[in-house]
Design brief:
The complex is a heterodimer of chains A (383) and B (512). By secondary structure, chain A is of the alpha+beta class. Chain A has one domain (58-310, 329-371): Bira Bifunctional Protein, Domain 2 (BirA Bifunctional Protein, domain 2), CATH 3.30.930.10. Helix content of chain A is 30%, strand content 23%. The radius of gyration of chain A is 27 Å and the shape is elongated. Chain B has two domains: 76-172, Helix Hairpins (Orthogonal Bundle); 187-440 and 457-507, BirA Bifunctional Protein, domain 2. In chain B, strand 11 (402-410) and strand 12 (415-424) form a beta hairpin. The chains are: A alpha+beta (383), B alpha+beta (512). The interface between A and B is large, with 52 and 52 residues. Chain B: One of its GO terms (cellular component) is chloroplast.
C-alpha cells in the first residue's frame, strides 16, 4: 500500500489487510495454545537411558558391588525402635500428638549421632573439593517442577505452603539445582561441586502399606547431599566418582551394603542412570535404601536453564562481544548429578541395629567418635 | 522466643452476636458444661472436657461460629476476684482482650446455667411423677409437659454450649499476669539489667556483614531470591562451618548444665501453635501453614518442646525438666515491611538452639535468672558487646509474665540488635497445653495408692514453663562478622568456636 494508489484500490487493500490481520490474530492464539500443550506433553517425556541400564522392574536391578556381610549375632537382637526406647533416644508417641504419625523427636545421644553424621559428612566430602552449602527449605513450586518433581500430582511427595506458590523441599537437590538457574557458566568454572546440608520434608502419600516402621519412613529428616554441574562428556566419570565417595563413607562406618544399578522401571523421569545403595538392617530383617546417586544429564538443566560457554580453541578476538561467542561456539546445557552423602534416620537405623551388643549398648562407629566428644559407646547404664 | 507478639482478639464470632438463635445443633452434640472451667485452679485437677481433640474443627455448629479445638483451663473465679488488676494488665500490655465482654458472657453463662439446671430439675420431677399408676389423662398431661421441658432444655443446652465456647475464646485472649518489677510502657521503657563489654573502636573503615560475606563468598541472597523469594539465603563455605559450630557448641555447653538435647519436628498441628500463645490464623501472622492440612511450620522449637508433655501429669520428682532443642525455624515476617530487613538480620528460615524448662511454680523466677545467666555467659565468651533488657509491659507478648531480651552491638548495621529472648510464661502455656504435676505427698503414701486419686499427695497443679534462646544463628553470624573483622577483610573466629571448626582461627580472603 506504499506509494500513490487509486482510492478504491487502496480501500480494497485496506479491507484485505484487515481480514488477514484478524485471521492472523486467531491463528497466533491457536499457535500459542498449541505450543503450550505441545510443551507440556513433551516435558513429560523421561530422560534417555544409559545403554547398560538393565531393563525391567525393581527385581531386574543389577548388583554392582557388595561390601561386607550380614553379621551373625550370638544373642537375640532388637530393632532400632526397641533399642531407642531402652536408650531413651527417640519419642514417636509425643510427636504423633504434636505433629502426626511419622514424626519423631531425637533425644540425648541420638542428637549427638545426627550432628556427628552431618558434621562428618560435610567434612569428608568438602575435603574432596565440594563447596559446603546450607540451603533454603522453602522454594518456589516452579523450581521443584524444573528438577523433575511434581508438586501438584495426586499423591505428591511435596508439601505446599498455603496461599503461596512455595513448597517445602524433599531434598537439597532442588535448591542446589536452582542456585544456577537461568545462567551461563564459564567452562573453566566446571565442574561445580557442592555438598549441601538441609532438612527434607516428604508427605509419603501413597506409602501406606509400604515399610513404615520407626525411622525407616518419616516426614522430616536431615540430609547431606552432593551435587555436580559438569560438562556433558564428564558426567559418566562424575557418576562413578559420586558412587565411590558414598561407598567409601558407608564402608568406613562398617556397614554391610549392596550397590545396585537400578532398572529402567525404577529410574524416575530425570535420571539417565541411577545407583542405589541398600544397607543391611538386621532388626528390620531387610536391606533398606540409604542412598541414591543419579546422573540426570541435561534433563534438569534444560528445565532450569543452565548452560555453559565452551572455551574458545583459538585466542579470542580483541573485540569479544558478549553473547556472540563466535570464537567460543554456542552455549551447551550442562549435565547435573546428585547423590546422597548421608540421610540421617536410616543411618541411625543401621548403626543401632548393626552395632548393638548383648547388653543393649551400641558401639559408635570410629569415624563418628571425634564428632561426639570421643564417645565410644551408647550405654543403658548411663541413663 | 524472639519477640513476635501481636495481640489480636481471637474469635470468629463478632462481639454483637447474640446466642439464642443458634439452635441447629443436634442433640448428640450437646455436652454438659464442665464445671471445672469456672472454678479455681486447684480444682482444675479434674480431667478437662476437650472438644475435638483431633483438631478437625468439629461438627457444623450454628451459623458461622467456629468451635474451638481446645480449651485453656482458665481460672474464671480468679479473674472475677481480681477484675481491676486484670483490666490494668490488659491496658498496660496494649492487649485487645475484651474484659468487659468476658464478664458479660460470664454473667450470662451463670444465668443460663442456673436456668438449665432448673429445667433439668423440673423434668426430673415430672419423670418421677410418672412412676406408678396414674389416670390416663393425667399421664398424658405429664407426658406433654415432659416433652415441652425436654425441647426447651435441648435449646437452652445448645445455647449454653455456644456461650461457653465464646466465653472461652474471649477469655483465652487475656494475656498472662505481669511480674511486679516489669517496667510499664512501650519499648523505650524497657530497663537495662546488665551491660557487657563496649563498642569496639576501629582504626579502619568497617564493612557490614553483607559486604564482608560477599568478599569472603559466604552467602548468596540473589540466587535464593530467584529460587525461593526475598529474605532467603544460601550459606556457603566457612559460613556453613560457622553455623554448624554455633549449633554444636551451644548444644554442648547447655547440655553440660543438665539440659536434655532434643531435635524436634518442624511441622506441628496448628492447635499446638495456638496453645503456646501464637496465632496461626491472624492477619499478618508469623506462622506458615501447610496447604490442605491443619499443620504449620514452627517459628521456634518452643512449640514442639512445649508440646512434648501436652496433656500430661508429671511427677513432682521429675521436675524441673530442662531441654536444649535444635531446630530450623520458619517465620513469614508479614507486617515487617519497613522494619530492619538487611541481609541476615531478618530472614524467613534460620537455625536456632532453644532452652526450655518445665518447673514447679515456686521455682520459675529462679530458673528465669538461671536461663538469662546462661545466655549472658555464652555471648560474653564469644566476645560480644551486649545489653540485657527487662522488657516493658507493651513489649511482652501474651504468654510472658516477664521477658529479658539481649541486644548485641552490630557495628556494620550501626545498631543494637536482638539476639535472644528469655521468657517466664508461668502457667499461661501449661493451662493451654494441659501440663500438670502431682506434688509429692508429705507423708509416706498409703499402701493402696490409687492412680488418679492422690489423696495423700494433693490435687495436681499446673507447671510453669520458660523458654530462652541459646543461639539464633543468623544474627550471631552478623555479630561475629561485623565485630571481629580486620582491616584486611579477614574475620577472627571466636575462640570457643574454633574446636568446632577444625581449629580454624581466621576467615581469610586470600584462601578463596
Amino acid at each position: 500500500m506504499k506509494g500513490k494508489l487509486d482510492p478504491s484500490v487502496r480501500q480494497a487493500l485496506v479491507e484485505e489487510g484487515k481480514n488477514l490481520k484478524e485471521g492472523l490474530i486467531a491463528l497466533e492464539e491457536d499457535l500459542v495454545q498449541l505450543t503450550d500443550k505441545l510443551q507440556l506433553e513433551a516435558q513429560s517425556i523421561p530422560n534417555t537411558t544409559h545403554p547398560d541400564v538393565p531393563v525391567g522392574g525393581e527385581e531386574s536391578s543389577v548388583l554392582r558391588k557388595e561390601v561386607g556381610s550380614q553379621r551373625s549375632f550370638n544373642f537375640a537382637i532388637k530393632d532400632h525402635l526397641q533399642l531407642g526406647k531402652e536408650l531413651d533416644l527417640f519419642d514417636f508417641d509425643a510427636a504423633a500428638e504434636v505433629s502426626g504419625s511419622k514424626f519423631y523427636y531425637l533425644k540425648n545421644e541420638a542428637v549427638l549421632l545426627e550432628m556427628a553424621l552431618v558434621n562428618w559428612a560435610i567434612s569428608e566430602v568438602s575435603k574432596k573439593g565440594f563447596t559446603p552449602l546450607i540451603t533454603p527449605e522453602i522454594v518456589r513450586s516452579s523450581v521443584v517442577e524444573k528438577c523433575g518433581f511434581q508438586p501438584r500430582a495426586k499423591n505428591t511427595q511435596v508439601y505446599s505452603i498455603e496461599d503461596s506458590d512455595q513448597c517445602l523441599i524433599g531434598t537439597a537437590e532442588i535448591p542446589v539445582g536452582g542456585i544456577h538457574m537461568d545462567s551461563i557458566l564459564a567452562e573453566s568454572a566446571l565442574p561445580l561441586k557442592y555438598v549441601a546440608y538441609s532438612h527434607c520434608f516428604r508427605t509419603e502419600a501413597g506409602a501406606a502399606g509400604a515399610a513404615t516402621r520407626g525411622l525407616y519412613r518419616v516426614h522430616q529428616f536431615s540430609k547431606v547431599e552432593m551435587f555436580i554441574f559438569c560438562r556433558p562428556e564428564e558426567s559418566g566419570k562424575w557418576h562413578e566418582e559420586l558412587i565411590t565417595i558414598e561407598e567409601d563413607l558407608y564402608a568406613s562406618l562398617g556397614l554391610h551394603f549392596k550397590t545396585l544399578d537400578m532398572a529402567t522401571g525404577d529410574l524416575g523421569a530425570p535420571a539417565y542412570r541411577k545407583f542405589d545403595i541398600e544397607a543391611w538392617m538386621p532388626g528390620l530383617e531387610r536391606y533398606g535404601e540409604i542412598s541414591s546417586a543419579s546422573n540426570c544429564t541435561d534433563y534438569q538443566s534444560r528445565r532450569l536453564g543452565i548452560r555453559y560457554r565452551p572455551s574458545p580453541s583459538e585466542p579470542p578476538s580483541t573485540s569479544t562481544k558478549k553473547g556472540k561467542g563466535a570464537a567460543s561456539g554456542p552455549t551447551q546445557f550442562v549435565h547435573t548429578l546428585n547423590a546422597t552423602a548421608v540421610a540421617v534416620p536410616r543411618l541411625i537405623v543401621c548403626i543401632l541395629e548393626n552395632f548393638q551388643q548383648g547388653d543393649g549398648s551400641i558401639v559408635v562407629p570410629e569415624p563418628l567418635r571425634p564428632y561426639m566428644g570421643g564417645l565410644e559407646l551408647l550405654s543403658p547404664k548411663f541413663k | 522466643m524472639l519477640t513476635c507478639g501481636r495481640f489480636i482478639s481471637s474469635s470468629a464470632a463478632t462481639s454483637t452476636a447474640s446466642f439464642f438463635p443458634f439452635r441447629t445443633l443436634t442433640r448428640s452434640l450437646v455436652r454438659r458444661p464442665a464445671p471445672h472451667l469456672l472454678s479455681s485452679a486447684s480444682a482444675a485437677a479434674a480431667t478437662a472436657v476437650e472438644l475435638d481433640t483431633n483438631g478437625d474443627g468439629s461438627a457444623g455448629g450454628g451459623a458461622g461460629v467456629v468451635r474451638p479445638q481446645w480449651k485453656a483451663a482458665i481460672d474464671f473465679k480468679w479473674i472475677r476476684d481480681n477484675r481491676d488488676a486484670v483490666a490494668d494488665n490488659i491496658r498496660t500490655r496494649n492487649s485487645t482482650a475484651n474484659l468487659d465482654l468476658v464478664f458479660e458472657l460470664y454473667d450470662q453463662y451463670l444465668t443460663l446455667q442456673k436456668e438449665v439446671e432448673r429445667l433439668r430439675a423440673e423434668r426430673n420431677a415430672v419423670a418421677n411423677k410418672m412412676k406408678g399408676k396414674l389416670d390416663p389423662s393425667v399421664r398424658q398431661a405429664l407426658v406433654e409437659e415432659g416433652k415441652n421441658l425436654k425441647e426447651g432444655l435441648i435449646a437452652l443446652e445448645e445455647d449454653l454450649v455456644q456461650l461457653t465456647d465464646k466465653l472461652q475464646l474471649e477469655a483465652q485472649s487475656i494475656p498472662n499476669t505481669t511480674h511486679p518489677d516489669v517496667p510499664v510502657g512501650g519499648e523505650e521503657s524497657s530497663v537495662l539489667r546488665k551491660e557487657v563489654g563496649s563498642q569496639r573502636s576501629f582504626n579502619f573503615a568497617i564493612k557490614d556483614h553483607l559486604q564482608l560475606g560477599k568478599e569472603l563468598d559466604l552467602f548468596d541472597f540473589d540466587a535464593a531470591a530467584e529460587v525461593s523469594g526475598s529474605k532467603f539465603y544460601y550459606l556457603k563455605n566457612e559460613a556453613v562451618l560457622l553455623e554448624m559450630a554455633l549449633v554444636n557448641w551451644a548444644i554442648s555447653e547447655v547440655s553440660k548444665k543438665g539440659f536434655t538435647p532434643l531435635i524436634t519436628p518442624e511441622i506441628v498441628r496448628s492447635s499446638v501453635v495456638e496453645k503456646c500463645g501464637f496465632q496461626p490464623r491472624a492477619k499478618n501472622t508469623q506462622v506458615y501453614s501447610i496447604e490442605d492440612s491443619d499443620q504449620c511450620l514452627i517459628g521456634t522449637a518452643e512449640i514442639p518442646v512445649g508440646g512434648i508433655h501436652m496433656d500430661s501429669i508429671l511427677a513432682e520428682s521429675a521436675l524441673p525438666l530442662k531441654y536444649v532443642a535444635y531446630s530450623h525455624c520458619f517465620r513469614t515476617e508479614a507486617g515487617a515491611a519497613g522494619a530492619a530487613t538487611r541481609g541476615l538480620y531478618r530472614v524467613h528460615q534460620f537455625s536456632k538452639v532453644e532452652m526450655f524448662i518445665f518447673c514447679r511454680p515456686e521455682e520459675s523466677g529462679k530458673w528465669h535468672e538461671e536461663l538469662i545467666t546462661i545466655e549472658e555467659d555464652l555471648y560474653a565468651s564469644l566476645g560480644l558487646h551486649f545489653k540485657t533488657l527487662d522488657m516493658a509491659t507493651g513489649d511482652l507478648g501474651a504468654p510472658a509474665y516477664r521477658k529479658f531480651d539481649i541486644e548485641a552491638w552490630m557495628p556494620g548495621l550501626e545498631r543494637y540488635g536482638e539476639i535472644s529472648s528469655a521468657s517466664n510464661c508461668t502457667d499461661y502455656q501449661s493451662r493451654r497445653l494441659g501440663i500438670r504435676y502431682r506434688p509429692s505427698p508429705s507423708e509416706p503414701p498409703s499402701t493402696s495408692t490409687k492412680k488418679g486419686k492422690g489423696a495423700a499427695s494433693g490435687p495436681t497443679q499446673f507447671v510453669h514453663t520458660l523458654n530462652a534462646t541459646a543461639v539464633a544463628v543468623p544474627r550471631l553470624i552478623v555479630c561475629i562478622l561485623e565485630n571481629f573483622q580486620q582491616g584486611d577483610g579477614s574475620i577472627v573466629v571466636p575462640e570457643p568456636l574454633r574446636p568446632y571448626m577444625g581449629g580454624l582461627e581466621l576467615l581469610s580472603p586470600k584462601f578463596k
